[in-house]
Design a protein that fits this description.
The protein has 499 residues and is of the alpha/beta class. The protein contains 17 helices and 24 strands. α4 crosses α5 and α13 crosses α14.
């Protein structure tokens, strides 16, 4: 690794109305280095990358690439200069082939027409370099999420990128797809490409990165070689406090033997079959399993978002029929979905409107919506969830990921639901916001509410659950009490081993 900086930020500051997103940030990244960029949601990571990639051209300070000062006026300017980004949510045009998506807007031409032979030849050369099994001619819709991620990297290489940033690239990938991605990133590094890697998953950072830069509240906190920092030190610098044991119950367990929900023989063929379990009052019931174990499908069917093909649901000992989310809500069930951006809140609405979505009847006076009542509700629940910012008229979409999740939580708290289903409650959320969400979950069970928590993070499942149901290939294969929980035991059953 050379010591010549490939990327250099000097006193970079950026302000938005009411918020200083970056405050005089200075650091540099060497050529051919894998640099992790970490910090809580709202720390300034996205803003800094948006400056680097030409999304924001107005800012204070300077950015240098390979010794030359730059100020990109657009994303296209950055791409032309060899600065490319692989987004967390892959965007593509489904009607086009893989190769057409890779070369979009820069297709090789023969006169007035696109030269498809050359297009596929060039795209396939890059796909071979990335060890992809699919070809340029294939439909992009036929690819898995991990393969679509490779297309995004191929697009960066097509533009001869010298610097590639990856924003939470494994959020939707299986473990196998993530390992393949890591191998590719290491090859890119070996070829002299500089990688900026943004992730909340500390395992990935310690496995992959050469060094890590920490931002907090828009300020540069420090850069460390990975070999020279521990996880606890890293977390402490990210949040300014020690949260090494944040996924741990801080209060006594509150569950009773009263059964508030019983599911018998629930099936959605052919997705999952014969799921049966009980949820007790004041209990946090964890659902564990690998990607594809169908945990989300089960909770969606209980809530009424998906139609069951057979089985029975009992609430307080009485059989109920729940065929729609409206009926689920009417029976006192709330679902905080895995994908908050598409299912959790409405992008065009502000915080007050989003929080009121599941309980509009509470804010209706003689057939009219009472906006002061909605704003009061927003401020009350915003304080309860430690929302930043508390402004009822602030667009939810403009909040950081952790604060968006708090708005979704507040929406269901406003509904007075007694059973709350959390599907990946801290996905894409920084460690500080995680701690706040865990405290909120403990508040809820203390109030007598009951929680179903679906999570892929085993420390979260082990630290928070009273009991855990382990799923594998659409079936519950093991039920474990909190005294029996270890990562090894959960994985043993999740991988399909028999009792």
């Amino acid at each position: 690794m050379t010591h010549k900086p490939m990327v250099k930020f000097s006193n970079v500051s950026k302000a938005f109305p009411g918020v200083k997103a970056l405050d005089s940030v200075s650091f540099e990244i060497a050529k051919g280095e894998i640099r992790a960029l970490v910090g809580e949601n709202g720390a300034g990571k996205s803003t800094l990358l948006n400056i680097l990639h030409g999304v924001y051209s107005e800012y204070d300070g300077t950015v240098e690439i390979d010794g030359k000062e730059v100020n990109f006026r657009s994303v296209q300017d950055a791409i032309h200069f060899g600065i490319a980004k692989v987004h967390q949510e892959i965007s593509y045009i489904p009607e086009l082939s893989v190769g057409q998506n890779i070369t979009l807007g820069y297709e090789p031409r023969k006169g007035l027409f696109i030269d498809y032979d050359k297009l596929h030849e060039e795209a396939n050369a890059i796909l071979r370099r990335l060890h992809c099994r699919f070809r340029s001619e294939d439909s992009i819709q036929s690819l898995s999420t991990g393969e679509q991620q490779m297309v995004a990297i191929a697009k960066a290489l097509f533009h001869n990128a010298r610097v590639i940033s990856l924003d939470e690239p494994t959020a939707s990938l299986s473990a196998q797809e993530a390992n393949t991605l890591f191998e590719i990133i290491r090859e890119l590094k070996a070829n002299g490409i500089t990688i900026i890697y943004v992730s909340h998953r500390l395992d990935e950072i310690f496995e992959l990165a050469d060094s890590v830069t920490i931002l907090r509240d828009g300020r540069f906190i420090g850069t460390h070689m990975i070999a020279d920092i521990t996880r606890d030190q890293l977390i402490k610098e990210m949040v300014g406090r020690d949260v090494s044991a944040f996924a741990v119950r801080k209060r006594p367990r509150r569950f009773t033997e009263e059964v508030v929900l019983e599911v018998k023989g629930l099936s959605v063929e052919p997705t999952f079959r014969d799921v049966s379990f009980k949820l007790r009052k004041g209990e946090i019931l964890g659902f564990a399993g690998l990607v594809g174990s169908k945990r989300t499908d089960v909770v969606r069917a209980i809530f009424g978002a998906d139609q069951k093909t057979s089985g029975e649901v009992y609430l307080g000992g009485k059989k109920v029929e729940i065929a729609t989310p409206e009926q689920g809500l009417a029976h006192g069930i709330g679902l905080i979905p895995e994908n908050r951006k598409t299912q959790g809140f409405v992008k065009t609405l502000n915080n007050a409107d989003n929080m009121a979505l599941a309980s509009l009847n509470k804010f209706t006076r003689r057939g009219f919506i009472s906006y002061p009542a909605k704003w009061d509700n927003c401020r009350t629940l915003g304080e309860a969830t430690n929302l930043n910012t508390l402004d009822p008229e602030y667009l939810t979409e403009q909040l950081s990921g952790g604060n968006q999740q708090k708005v979704v939580l507040a929406k269901w708290l406003s509904s007075d639901a007694d059973i709350l289903i959390f599907d990946e409650p801290t996905k894409g959320v920084d460690v500080g916001a995680k701690e706040e969400i865990y405290a909120l979950i403990e508040d809820l069970v203390e109030q007598g509410k009951s929680i179903i928590m679906v999570s892929s993070e085993l420390p979260e499942i082990i630290g928070m659950s009273d009991r855990v149901l382990v799923m594998s290939e659409g079936r519950i294969v093991k039920k474990l009490d909190h005294t029996e929980l270890t990562e090894e035991r959960i994985l043993y059953y999740a991988m399909g081993e028999q009792q």
